[in-house]
Structure formats: structure tokens, C-alpha cells
Write a structure and sequence with these properties.
Two copies of one chain form a homodimer. With 379 residues, chain A is α/β, with parallel strands linked by helices. Helix content of chain A is 30%, strand content 25%. Chain A contains eleven helices and 18 strands. The radius of gyration of chain A is 22 Å and the shape is elongated.
């Protein structure tokens, strides 16, 4: 097949810069190696076996998933050690057992006596073994029991008495996405570490082995200074990075490995608008940078080689229309890009933008598209 | 196959209430019949042939699409009269010609002399016929030439001289989504009508036949009082409706035909939070009600029969976690829904929420799931 180049793609298309991705993966891996913890990458961002193969050193390596469909898909590609990092609901247990029957070692999460009782009941009724971690709330962000809660030990003891050994404790410092500085991220990483380690210590003091101590978010994973007591780290978005991560100074703009290729389809000259064929369906509705010091609208516009057209962002988006303009609304500073010009747009949030696409167009050197990698959606 | 009921679905799932959908379609159809205009439904909201079959009286009926993939898909299901309602970019013309070769009568849109010249050049080079409409800007919302612009007639004359007859003029009053009252929507409908009719009159005065005069958005289509001079109306979201439309008083809450089925997976009792397995991936990141008088967060929570749990909304969302709480943050007013309880969540925006799913679970009487209808995504 003849080589395809960027300019030949119909737009919008999701472009994945392979060299940047490989560099981002190596950065995380070498950092965690230095800290002496194992890595259980989160594949919810990429939902693509070709990306996961870069993340894993062998197919025996562990992964983290956010849906049971991710577990199904990666298991079908040979991955067997899978952590489902969302608290389990009783109506998903049939599906969990079907995965176990396919040879998947699926670890489940829970954070309450209520779910513990439901699970124990089901384990007894089905004579099944479930691998269970207890979710710890290290930052008030969403789920989890606090590390000092009496319920934590109660859950642990109940599980063990029901013949379900506690595999470990897990936390996710989602609040790291709201940190104002790298210093604050470092402090958040230490808060996350201390919370999950305290939880493990309390369980161990109660006679529960608790071998796994799992934490992670991209910011805290990359900026943790030490991870004493932690056995594994989880992170996902670092593979691609995005404008939210750049806004946090967790990466540079030129580390962002995903972008949306779009075409100029018109202008509203007197307003300084350039209309693109990439709207919110192509970018997602994520406005994660709206709360950051620099609001990037629906995305930062770059030229075809990925160099930012400074100060030009998508100031608005309809379903299939993106409105590119100067970020401060300076109509007289409009760029005059002819109809048909292609641009690349860096997204606010890699997870949500990538979810709008069925594949990645993999960008190699010299604008060459070296591969098309399929990704999936849904549950 | 034994009947499946709502409670048996794994969550999250997209539920489509068939009776509500049919009622919504009949409402639009009878209104437009009264106004004496033909209907070219927009299928961007549903992206599903089973829904489109309810919308169309015969497969020969016309449709509106927002992507060429929609054109491909509906053409493969026998629909041939298709309007691609986004201004055409030169790099899509090969695809357009491939669709023509499959027997599709695809109408294209443009709004500038720049695109007109590019298209005329391509028509000459390929000896192809293109059906072209000129987009009119009736509300300053995004694309189009204003109806009084000299460029409008210039485009028309250039097209005709290049042997490309002007099929018509088209406008979309996207600003109707920002109207504060039904009175304002009626005024917007009249503004939209007057603009597109003026554009047609100016072209006709210049000797251009301009047979098609097309307008539409769900609010203006439903509340237009007369449509003199208009030949066809386009609208899409009315099939499902959503919280944004209900916030505009365009529909009632119990007209909303799509909802997300979710399961309670945990609680943070002291905060009044109920954690659900439907986060922004299940709801989309759309926060369309944020600018309305009643902000519905990421969605309004209902019981399994679709009755709103008054004042309980998704106040926050992570990728696969939704946080349900009292809309005014009253922790003492929390509902205590046990883990495993299923709820249904009405979405802000049907187009963006439905786009997160590969199918609709069609809800019939008595919580019965009568069918699974596939839908597609991408470009």
C-alpha cells in the first residue's frame, strides 16, 4: 500500500504522535523504576491493544481498567491480571464470573460494609473466589473509606471471616488535577501515599496481610518523591498527556501526543472567526482548562506539524463546527487560513477526546501515517 | 428469547422510551403539516436507522446529516436524498463523489466566494454535477453569509455561470437554544424565516431560481407561527428531547425519551453523596443546563420508571463515577438508595449523551426491553 501522509486524511481525525507517546511512557516507567514500585497502567485512556503493548513489558503485566468491557477486550488480547478500579455493583457479578471463567484474574474494589456483605453473600452462594481491594479516600474526591475509619478494619475482618482474603488497599488522588503548582502535586502525592499506607498498616495491625498497596494519578505518580510502603502505581493519561496536564505543568505542550486534525471550512471575517470541521463531537465537550489559569477553550490550535498557533484556540463549538479565534477575542488579530487549510488541535482531556474516535491515525516521522490503531467505546 | 426487563441490564446503558419518541415525532410532524412545509429531519442526534424509519414516512423521504459517515450509513439503508448541512471542505469532495456514484443525491453547503471558486474548479475538472445550497447567517451564531450581503448574490451568480444551479438557501438559528422564553423562540423563528426568505428573494431578483428555502432548529421548528416562503424545515433533537430543551420550555420533562440507566455503587454519607456507575463517559461532558435558570449538573436523577427524584442531580462526574446529591448541597436531605439500586438519569443534551453509546435499549410498556437498536459514531 502506498504511504499515506497527514494531508491525505479526511477530517476530523485523531492523530497519535508515536514518538511523543513512546517518550511519555519511558518517562513514567523510568521514574517508577527509580522509586522501586511496580506499575499497573490504566488503559481507560487508550482503550487500544496497540497502545497497551507499548505500556506493557510482557503480556503477563498487570493493567487497570475502568469498565468490564475493557477487561473483556484486553483479556481477549492475552492480558490476564486486571484490576477493575471502580467499586463493584451486585448486578455486574455475573459478568465478573464470566471473565473469571475465561481465565482472567480480576481484582474487584469496594468501599463499604454494605457492598462487602453483598459480595460475601454472593461468594458463598456461588462458591466463588473473588480478589478484593478496599478503596481508600485520600483526598475527599469521590469514593473510598477514610484511612482512619473504623469501617475499614470492619470490612477487612468481615471479608477474611467470609473466606475472602483482602488483596490490598487502593487510592486515587483525583484532586491532584486541581493542584496549583508542582509543589502542591508533590504534597498531594505524599498525602495519597501516607493515606493508603496508613490504611494498610491498620489492616495489618488487625491481622490482615494486605499485600497490595496501590495508588496513583498521572500527576502524583510523576512527582512523588518517594513511595515507601506503596507496592504499585496506577496512571493512564500520561501516555498521551493533554492541555489540562500541561496547564498543571505536569508536561509541556510538545509532550502532548494526541491531536485532532481539522480543516478550515469558512470564515466570519468581521468577527475574526475561522470555522473548522471539528466541533464538540470531534473534541468532546470537556472544558477541563476552564478552571485553570489559561483557559484553552475547546482546544489549542496548531499547524500541521504540531506547532501551536500562539493564542488561537477553539472559542466555541457546535456539534460539527469549531470556531477558532484569538483567545482574547481580538478580531483584528485573526489568522487568515484559506478554506481547505488543515490544522491540528490539542485537546483539553485526552480521555474524553479519544473516546470520540474509533481509531488512532499513528503519525511517524515526516507527516507519514504509519498505522491505524483501532480503539473501542461503550460498556 | 425470554423477555428482558430494565432491571436485568448491565449498567450504564442508554434507554430509549419508544412511546415518548413516537409522541415527539408525531408532535413535530403534525405541527409542520399545519404550517404547510415539508420536513427533512436531522439524523445527527439518533445515528440509527431504526429511529430514522420512525422519522421517515417512506425511504424516499429526505434527511439532513452532519457528517459524510452519516450519509454513507443512511444511504446503505436506502435513503438517497441527503443534505450535508456543514460547509463543504475541498478534501471531502472525493468522498462526496464516491457517494454520488452510489446513487446518493447529496446536497452540499457553502457560504463564501472562496469555497464557491474551489468547488467550481473541481466541478470543471471532474465534469461532475454538484447540488449546492448557500448557507445564510440568520442570528450571528456560526456560519453563513448574511441575507443582505453582496457576497450572497455574487456566490449565486458565480455558481450559475459555472453551470452549478443554486438549489437553495439554508439557515439554522442555533441561537434559539439561548432564548429566555417561548415568546423569544417565536421571535427567533420569525427572524430565521425572514432572513432565509429575504436571501431567496434577493437571489431570485438576480435571476436565480433558488427553489429550496430551508430553515430549522428544534425550538424554532416547533414554535414558528407561520413559515411563509419556507419550503422545508430541519430539526433533530426533538425526537428525544433533553434537559436543555425542557429548560427552554420546548418540552416537558416527561417528553424526554432518552435516559441513562445507572447503578448505585457506594455512598459518602456525611457529604450526602450517592455514587453511581455513570460518570461523564456515560453522560458526556455536556453541561448545557449550566447557563439556564435551573442547572441540572450532569443530569437529573429519576427512579426506574422515569419519575424525577426531585432535586437530585449528578453534581459531579469522573470518567466512570457519577456523584448524585441534592442540587443545593443539602447533605441532610440525601436519599438513602442501597448499593445495587438502579436509577435513570435524564441527560442535558441528547446528541452528546447518545454519542457515548453503541446502541439504544428500547423500552416498551412495563419496563420491558423490546429491542436493541445499533447506532454508530465517528466520521
Amino acid at each position: 500500500m502506498p504511504k499515506q501522509v497527514l494531508e491525505q486524511l479526511e477530517t476530523p481525525a485523531l492523530i497519535l504522535d508515536e514518538a511523543r507517546m513512546d517518550r511519555n511512557i519511558e518517562r513514567m516507567r523510568s521514574h517508577l523504576r527509580r522509586l522501586g514500585v511496580s506499575f499497573r497502567p490504566h488503559v481507560k485512556t487508550n482503550k487500544c491493544i496497540d497502545v497497551a503493548r507499548r505500556l506493557l513489558e510482557t503480556p503477563q503485566d498487570p493493567i487497570t481498567v475502568s469498565t468490564l468491557l475493557e477487561a473483556e477486550y484486553f483479556a481477549a488480547h492475552g492480558v490476564k491480571d486486571i484490576l477493575y478500579a471502580v467499586c463493584i455493583a451486585p448486578n455486574k457479578l455475573d459478568h465478573v464470573m464470566a471473565l473469571q471463567d475465561k481465565g482472567v484474574r480480576l481484582s474487584l474494589l469496594l468501599d463499604s460494609m454494605e457492598t462487602t456483605r453483598l459480595l460475601a453473600e454472593r461468594a458463598r452462594a456461588t462458591r466463588r473466589h473473588f480478589d478484593v481491594l478496599i478503596e481508600i479516600d485520600s483526598d475527599g474526591h469521590r469514593s473510598g473509606v477514610t484511612p482512619d475509619a473504623s469501617e475499614l478494619v470492619e470490612i477487612g475482618l468481615f471479608l477474611e471471616s467470609a473466606g475472602i482474603p483482602v488483596k490490598g488497599v487502593l487510592t486515587h488522588a483525583g484532586s491532584s488535577y486541581d493542584c496549583a503548582s508542582i509543589e502542591a502535586i508533590r504534597a498531594m502525592a505524599e498525602q495519597e501515599r501516607a493515606a493508603v499506607v496508613l490504611a494498610a498498616q491498620r489492616l495489618r495491625a488487625a491481622g490482615i496481610a494486605c499485600p497490595v498497596v496501590s495508588m496513583g494519578s498521572t500527576p502524583t505518580a510523576l512527582f512523588a518523591e518517594h513511595l515507601e510502603g506503596v507496592t504499585e502505581v496506577r496512571a493512564g493519561v500520561f501516555v498521551f498527556f493533554d492541555l489540562v496536564m500541561a496547564g498543571l505543568s505536569v508536561c509541556r505542550l510538545d509532550d502532548i501526543a494526541v491531536s485532532v486534525l481539522a480543516t478550515v471550512i469558512g470564515h466570519q471575517h468581521e468577527k475574526g472567526w475561522t470555522v473548522l470541521d471539528a466541533g464538540w463531537m470531534a473534541m468532546s465537550r470537556d472544558r477541563g482548562t476552564a478552571k485553570q489559569p489559561v483557559d484553552q477553550g475547546y482546544g489549542l490550535v496548531c499547524d500541521l506539524d504540531g506547532r501551536p498557533l500562539d493564542d488561537f484556540i477553539l472559542v466555541g463549538a457546535n456539534q460539527e463546527h469549531g470556531i477558532m479565534a484569538h483567545r482574547h477575542g481580538k478580531a483584528d488579530r485573526a489568522l487568515h487560513l484559506p478554506v481547505g487549510t488543515q490544522v491540528r488541535i490539542l485537546p483539553n482531556h485526552a480521555c474524553s477526546t479519544a473516546a470520540q474516535y474509533g481509531n488512532y491515525k499513528v503519525l511517524g516521522p515526516g507527516r507519514e501515517i504509519t498505522a491505524t490503531w483501532q480503539r473501542f467505546s461503550g460498556w
